[in-house]
Specification:
The structure holds 3 protein chains of 3 kinds.
Chain A lengths: L2 H23 L11 H12 L2 H34 L1 H16 L5 H9 L3 H25 L3 H9 L4 H38 L5 H10 L3 H29 L1 H12 L1
Chain B lengths: L6 E13 L4 E13 L3 E5 L6 H9 L6 E6 L2 E2 L7 E4 L3 H4 L6 H6 L9 H14 L15 H14 L4 E5 L7 H18 L2 E6 L2 H7 L2 E5 L4 E8 L8 H5 L2 H18 L8
Parallel strand pairs in B: 2-10, 3-8, 3-9, 6-7, 7-8
Antiparallel strand pairs in B: 1-2, 1-4, 4-5, 9-10
Chain C lengths: L3 H35 L11 H13 L1 H33 L2 H14 L8 H8 L3 H25 L3 H9 L4 H39 L4 H10 L3 H32 L13
Classes of the chains: A mainly alpha, B alpha/beta, C mainly alpha.
C-alpha cells in the first residue's frame, strides 16, 4: 500500500472501529439516555444544517472570537512591559498569580452583577478567563529573551519599534503561543458555561434546553457539535501556530539533531 | 605609546569597576591605547583579563567607571553608528526567525538608506564573506562557520569605520577558524576598515595583527604593545612557519605566563 | 577575594527585596479594591470594598456551610484528579510502550482532546443530576488528557538503548517499567499532574456553578442570586486562594521530584505557567 494511503488508514482505523461499535451496539437501544447512534446522526443533520442552527452557532462563535482575541491582545500588551521590567514583575507577580488562580467560571455570577445577562457578560467572562495564561506566558517569554541578541540590538542601534517587532515579539512568541493554547481551551469552557448559566441563544443554551426538555438525541447531537467545534478550533490554531512558528520548529529540530 | 596624529580610536585611561551587592570587582584598572585608521590590532590575554569587558566599553555597550573612549574625535557614550560588533556566540547573535538576508539587512533599515542601496550592500557583504545561495536560509540551517560568516557579513554591510570582534572564532573548529582568519585579513585589506580583534589564541593574534596588545590579569592593564613585523602577505602555511612568527609567539606567550602569575608592568 | 558569606547575604537580601516588592503589589491591589468602591467609581453594590469582603470571609469561615462547601469542592477535585492520574499513567504507559498502539490511537486522542468537557454537562445532569458523579465526569474527562499526553511524551523519551539492554537481560514487563520507563517518565508526569490539578479545580468549580453540585461554585452562584454580594466575593477570594495553593503545591511537588531525580529531559516538555 502506498505510504500516504497507509498513513490515512492507520489514522482512521481506531476512530472508525469505535464509531462502528457505537453504531451497532446502540442500534436497538431502548435506553432513554443512550439512543441509537443512527437516530443521533439523523437528528444531527436535521438540526444543525438548518438555518436555525446558525442562530445558535454563530452568536457563540462570535462571542468566543471577540473575547479570545481581546484577551490575547490584552495579555500580550500588558505582558511585554511587565516582562521587560524586573521591578514591575516583582511587584505584580503575586497579584497576577492570585488573579489567574481564580477559577474563571466563578466570574460568571460576578459579571452578571455588573453587566447583566447579555452578550457583554459572556464576552467579558471569556476575556477575564483567557487573559491570564497569555499574560503570564508573555511575561515568561519576554524574560527569557536571549541576552546576546539584546546586545546585538543595542550595538546596531535598532530603534524601539523595530526592537519590539523584530526582537521582542518574535523572541517571546513560542512562549506566548503556549499561553494562547491554554487560553483556547479555557475560552471554550467559558463560552459554554456562560451560555448554560444565563443566555437566550448559543450552543450552551441550546444544550441546556434540550437536556431540560429531555430531547435526548438533540442533546447528543449538540454534544457532538461542541466536540466538532473544539476540534476545528484546535486545528485552526495549530495551522496558525505552524505558520507563525515555523522557524521555531525548525530551530528545535536542528538543535535536537546536533 | 604612540598616539597617531589621525587615530581612529583612542582609549584613554579606561577603568571599569563592577559594583555588586556584596563586593566590587575592578575588572579594568587603567587601559590606554590608540588605534590608527586602517590598522588591525589584536587584544590577547589570559581568561579573566576583562577582554570582553574592554570590548563592550569600547563598543558603547557598557559604561566605563572612568576614562573615555574617543572615536574619530567624538566620545563614545552609546553604541556609535561607525562601529559594528561581531560576537563570539554566533548562534545566539543571529535572529532565528529571520532569513540570512533579513538578518544582514536589519541594521541597515535603521541607517535610513534607500532600498536598492540596501540590497546592494547585503548582496556585496554576503559575497565578500563567500556565502552563496543562502539568502533565504535560516541561520540554524547553516553550519557554525557559515553562521559566523553571516554575522561578519552583517557587520560588513553596516559599513562601519571600526570593526570590533570579540573572540569570534573561539567556538568553531580549527579548520573553519583558519578559513575565517584568512577571510578577516582579506576583508580588512579590501574594505580598509579598522579592526580591533579580541582573542585568547596567541597564534591567531600574531597571525592576524599588525599590533598585539597583551593584557594582564584583572585588574587589567596593558602589559605590552607588541608590533608584529611579519610580512603583509600572510598565509597559514608559510607565515606560521616563519622563525619570526615563533619568536613573537614565544614573546607574547611568556608575557601572558607572567600575567597569569600576577606580574604587572611598573606604573607609568 | 570576598568571603562566601557576603555572597549568601547578598542573595538573601536580594530575595527579601523581591518578597517585599511582591507584598507591596498585593497591598496596592487591596488598597485599590478598597478605594474604588468607596469613591463611587464602581457601585459598592456590585463591588464591596476590600475591608467588607475580608469581614465577609471571616464571617463565612465561622459558618459550617463554608467548610462543607470547601470540603465538597476539594473532595471532588482530589478524587477526580486521582482517577485521572492513575488512568493517565496506566493507559499512557500501555499505549506509549507499543509503537503500534501509539500510531493507532494517535488520531483518536487528537480528536477527543480538544472536545471541551463542559459538553458533557447535559449528559452528566441527566445521568447523575447534582451529585458528585456529575462533577467527577467533567473533572476526569478534562484532567485525564493532561496526564496522558505528558506520560506519552515521557515514555517516548525513554532511551531506546536502555530499553534494549533491559530486554536483553530478560527483565520482565514490570521490571522494565519500574527501572527504565518510570524514571524517565516521572518528570513529564509531574508536569502533567501540575496541569491536571489546575484544570481539575477549574472543572470542579465549573460543575458547581453550572450544575449546582455542592461546593464553592454553588455557594458563589447562590450568594449572587440571593444578593449577598459581599459573601459572594468572599467565596470568590477563597476559590482564588485554593487555586493559588493548588498551583504552588503542584509546582513545589514538581520541583521536589525533579530535585533528587536527575532530569533526563532534552527540552522543556509540557507547557510552562
Amino acid at each position: 500500500m502506498p505510504a500516504l494511503a497507509r498513513r490515512i488508514a492507520v489514522m482512521l482505523a481506531l476512530p472508525v472501529a469505535l464509531i462502528a461499535t457505537w453504531w451497532f451496539a446502540s442500534t436497538d437501544s431502548q435506553n432513554f439516555y443512550f439512543p441509537p447512534l443512527r437516530t443521533i446522526v439523523e437528528t444531527f443533520s436535521k438540526l444543525w444544517f438548518s438555518p436555525q442552527a446558525t442562530q445558535n452557532v454563530v452568536p457563540s462563535l462570535v462571542r468566543f472570537s471577540v473575547g479570545y482575541i481581546a484577551a490575547a491582545l490584552l495579555g500580550i500588551a500588558i505582558g511585554i512591559p511587565v516582562g521587560a521590567s524586573r521591578n514591575l514583575r516583582n511587584v505584580l507577580e503575586p497579584v497576577l498569580e492570585f488573579l489567574r488562580a481564580v477559577p474563571p467560571p466563578v466570574l460568571v455570577p460576578v459579571l452578571i452583577l455588573f453587566t447583566g445577562l447579555g452578550n457583554e457578560m459572556k464576552a467579558l467572562v471569556i476575556v477575564f478567563g483567557c487573559v491570564w495564561p497569555v499574560l503570564l506566558n508573555t511575561v515568561a517569554g519576554v524574560r527569557a529573551l536571549d541576552e546576546v541578541l539584546a546586545e546585538v540590538v543595542r550595538s546596531y542601534r535598532i530603534g524601539p519599534f523595530a526592537r519590539f517587532w523584530h526582537f521582542i515579539l518574535p523572541g517571546a512568541s513560542p512562549q506566548i503561543f503556549t499561553g494562547l493554547r491554554q487560553s483556547l481551551s479555557i475560552g471554550l469552557i467559558l463560552m459554554v458555561v456562560s451560555e448554560m448559566y444565563a443566555a437566550k441563544d448559543g450552543i450552551g443554551f441550546a444544550l441546556v434546553q434540550y437536556q431540560r426538555s429531555f430531547a435526548i438525541p438533540e442533546m447528543w447531537s449538540g454534544i457532538i457539535v461542541l466536540g466538532i467545534i473544539g476540534i476545528v478550533l484546535s486545528l485552526i490554531f495549530r495551522a496558525f501556530e505552524a505558520w507563525i512558528l515555523g522557524w521555531y520548529h525548525g530551530l528545535r529540530q536542528s538543535q535536537r539533531a546536533s | 605609546m604612540a598616539r597617531a596624529a589621525s587615530s581612529m580610536l583612542e582609549v584613554r585611561h579606561l577603568r571599569k569597576v563592577y559594583a555588586g551587592t556584596s563586593r566590587t570587582v575592578e575588572a579594568i584598572q587603567d587601559v590606554s591605547f590608540a588605534v590608527g585608521q586602517g590598522e588591525l590590532v589584536c587584544i590577547v590575554g589570559p581568561s579573566g583579563a576583562g577582554k570582553t569587558t574592554l570590548l563592550k566599553c569600547i563598543a558603547g555597550l557598557l559604561a566605563p567607571t572612568s576614562g573615555e573612549i574617543v572615536l574619530e574625535g567624538e566620545p563614545v557614550l552609546a553604541p556609535p553608528p561607525a562601529m559594528a560588533v561581531v560576537f563570539q556566540e554566533y548562534g545566539r547573535s543571529l535572529f532565528p526567525w529571520m532569513t540570512v538576508h533579513d538578518n544582514v539587512a536589519l541594521p541597515l533599515k535603521h541607517k535610513k538608506i534607500d532600498a536598492s542601496r540596501r540590497e546592494k550592500l547585503v548582496r556585496d557583504a554576503l559575497a565578500a564573506v563567500d556565502l552563496k545561495g543562502v539568502d533565504n536560509a535560516y541561520p540554524w540551517q547553516l553550519s557554525g562557520g557559515m553562521q559566523q560568516r553571516v554575522a561578519i557579513a552583517r557587520a560588513v554591510a553596516y559599513e562601519p569605520h571600526v570593526l570590533l570582534m570579540d573572540e569570534p572564532f573561539a567556538a568553531v573548529d580549527a579548520q573553519t577558524r583558519a578559513d575565517l582568519e584568512d577571510l578577516i585579513r582579506v576583508l580588512w585589506r579590501r574594505l580598509r576598515v579598522t579592526v580591533l580583534f579580541v582573542t585568547h589564541d596567541i597564534d591567531e593574534s600574531v597571525y592576524l595583527g599588525q599590533r598585539v596588545l597583551v593584557m594582564s590579569h584583572a585588574p587589567t592593564v596593558i602589559m605590552e604593545d607588541v608590533t608584529i613585523d611579519l610580512p603583509d602577505e600572510r598565509t597559514q602555511l608559510e607565515t606560521r612557519s616563519l622563525a619570526r612568527f615563533g619568536e613573537l609567539r614565544k614573546h607574547i606567550y611568556s608575557k601572558i605566563q607572567l600575567a597569569k602569575q600576577g606580574w604587572r608592568p611598573p606604573s607609568e | 577575594m570576598s568571603a562566601p558569606t557576603t555572597d549568601v547575604q547578598a542573595r538573601t537580601s536580594a530575595r527579601t527585596i523581591v518578597w517585599l516588592q511582591g507584598l507591596a503589589g498585593l497591598a496596592g491591589f487591596a488598597a485599590l479594591l478598597e478605594i474604588v468602591p468607596r469613591s463611587g467609581l464602581v457601585s459598592p453594590l456590585y463591588l464591596p470594598p476590600f475591608s467588607t469582603i475580608v469581614v465577609a470571609v471571616y464571617k463565612e469561615m465561622m459558618s459550617a456551610e463554608f467548610w462543607t462547601a470547601l470540603s465538597d469542592t476539594l473532595e471532588a477535585w482530589a478524587i477526580g484528579l486521582a482517577i485521572s492520574v492513575i488512568a493517565g499513567v496506566v493507559i499512557g504507559i500501555a499505549i506509549g510502550s507499543s509503537h503500534l498502539l501509539r500510531t493507532l490511537t494517535h488520531s483518536t486522542i487528537e480528536f477527543l482532546r480538544p472536545i471541551p468537557s463542559v459538553a458533557l454537562i447535559p449528559l452528566a445532569v441527566l445521568l447523575f443530576g447534582s451529585q458528585i458523579q456529575s462533577t467527577l465526569i467533567l473533572v476526569v474527562y478534562a484532567s485525564f488528557w493532561q496526564v496522558l499526553i505528558q506520560v506519552l511524551y515521557g515514555v517516548q523519551d525513554v532511551d531506546p538503548v536502555a530499553r534494549e539492554t533491559a530486554r536483553s537481560y530478560g527483565l520482565g514487563t514490570w521490571a522494565q517499567i519500574r527501572y527504565v520507563i518510570w524514571p524517565t517518565t516521572l518528570p513529564y508526569l509531574m508536569t502533567g499532574v501540575r496541569l491536571a490539578a489546575a484544570v481539575a479545580l477549574i472543572l470542579a468549580i465549573t460543575s458547581e456553578v453550572a450544575i449546582d453540585t455542592q461546593g464553592l461554585g454553588k455557594e458563589i452562584a447562590d450568594t449572587e442570586a440571593g444578593g449577598a454580594v459581599a459573601a459572594m466575593y468572599a467565596y470568590v477570594i477563597v476559590a482564588g486562594i485554593i487555586g493559588v495553593v493548588v498551583n504552588l503545591g503542584a509546582r513545589a511537588l514538581e520541583r521536589h521530584v525533579l530535585a533528587w531525580h536527575p532530569s533526563m529531559r532534552l527540552d522543556g516538555a509540557g507547557a510552562r505557567a
